[in-house]
Write a structure and sequence with these properties.
Blueprint lengths: L1 H33 L13 E6 L7 H9 L8 E6 L7 H5 L5 E4 L6 H9 L7 E4 L5 E2 L3 H6 L7 E11 L6 H23 L10 E4 L13 H11 L3 E13 L4 H21 L6 H4 L1 H30 L5 H22 L12 H20 L18
Parallel strand pairs: 1-2, 1-4, 2-3, 6-8
Antiparallel strand pairs: 4-7, 5-8, 6-7
Helix pairs in contact: 1-6, 1-10, 6-12, 8-10, 8-12, 10-12, 11-12
């Protein structure tokens, strides 16, 4: 029985972190050979609103405004909307000095989802692109996003997140950077094969006409908002050249806090998006949802623990199990090395990836506990970011 359990839990881990990627690569290869890809319209220029929900972002506002003004898109079709609900650092007063920035402010803080629900009442453009105040957009971002909307079946477009790192970096920055490079590749493959599974808040664009207010207690607003487009019969595409760049979290503690909140939002999102898990109704996308999100969120953390302890129980069954346990022990020593060196800046960033990966799984467990105990607020907390001078 222990041997069966060992292989069962190991299969979950291997499929989630490797098998799913291989499956996508195989399907992508076949589609590349046998199916001609329809070209996008490079001349498609709908009206666009850049929507920034910001809480106490006064320090970053001048840089963000300058970044927005550098976007390559017809000025008469590009609008900027800031919603600063709850900000008490004078953000709205600073933004009022920029005539091309529309500002919606209220002293009451209702979290990002409240800001989105309120702010969307003021959007009348064809497309709305949600982005974070601390994420700097590449000049061609808007064009790269909107050209995918020239496909009538596309309801949402996700952009690519880049983590800006110094040459030598510590654990949270190095691990975060490696993770997002891998995640971006998976999202691109999903888009090429069928549909990306959700969009992150750094760049999440939708057709404005498809927006419906989100539940006021929604934690992971960007993910739920984008996945609702699938429920409406549209697809989510990935614009890998639409880049949002931000600095890595200042410390592992800041990153862990952010990941725990995201994890709680992931757990909350499952019952709200449960219809998308129906393979008979949503076909391959349901398999994608199970593979990329559900297994990673719910099944992998306990599987990691189960594989280690069942491996101990069957240690003497075969030489394979002995060597596999040794490999696990070496892996956790590697994780421990990342923990010890987490505050040091090291050129070889791969050293920190196992530590970051385990930290993420730890955050999923904490997020589940926090959600079940009802202690996760919808209000987002700013994660302290590194200085660009570091």
């Amino acid at each position: 029985m222990s041997e069966i359990a060992f292989w069962f839990f190991l299969a979950i881990i291997l499929y989630t972190y490797g098998g799913y990627l291989i499956l996508l690569l195989i399907i992508w290869a076949f589609k590349s050979i046998f199916k001609e890809k329809k070209a996008v319209s490079e001349n498609y220029e709908p009206s666009v609103t850049i929507f920034i929900a910001a809480y106490n972002e006064k320090d970053i506002i001048p840089s963000k405004v300058e970044n927005l003004r550098q976007l390559d898109y017809p000025k008469q079709k590009l609008f900027f909307l800031w919603v600063t609900d709850g900000s008490d650092d004078g953000s709205e007063k600073l933004l009022s000095q920029y005539p091309d920035m529309k500002v919606i402010h209220s002293t009451e803080r209702k979290g990002k989802v409240g800001a989105i629900n309120r702010g969307m009442q003021y959007v009348d453009s064809d497309i709305v692109i949600f982005c974070d105040a601390n994420s700097m957009l590449s000049p061609t971002t808007v064009r790269e996003v909107v050209k995918l909307f020239s496909y009538s079946h596309v309801g949402c477009v996700a952009g690519e997140k880049h983590i800006l790192l110094p040459e030598q970096e510590s654990a949270q920055g190095a691990g975060e950077g490696v993770y997002w490079r891998v995640e971006s590749f998976i999202k691109w493959l999903e888009s090429e094969v069928n549909s990306t599974v959700g969009a992150a808040g750094e760049i999440c664009a939708i057709r404005s006409c498809l927006f419906e207010p989100l539940e006021p207690d929604t934690i992971l607003d960007d993910f739920v908002l984008s996945m609702r487009m699938i429920e409406k019969g549209y697809r989510i595409k990935y614009a890998h050249k639409a880049v949002a760049t931000e600095l890595a979290s200042f410390s592992i503690a800041d990153e862990l806090k952010r990941k725990v909140r995201i994890a709680a939002g992931c757990i909350q999102a499952i019952p709200r998006l449960k219809s998308l898990l129906n393979i008979w109704r949503y076909g391959f996308f349901a398999i994608q949802f199970w593979s990329h999100k559900i297994l990673r969120w719910v099944a992998v953390p306990p599987s990691i623990i189960a594989v280690f302890f069942t491996n101990i129980l069957i240690f003497n069954h075969h030489i394979f199990y002995r060597w596999f346990l040794y490999i696990q022990i070496l892996f956790y020593l590697w994780v421990g090395l990342g923990f010890v060196l987490r505050r040091h800046k090291i050129r070889y960033k791969f050293i920190f990836f196992p530590y970051y990966l385990m930290m993420m799984n730890y955050a999923l467990v904490l997020g589940l506990i926090r959600y079940l105990r009802g202690r996760q607020s919808v209000n987002w907390e700013k994660a302290k970011r590194m200085s660009s001078q570091n």
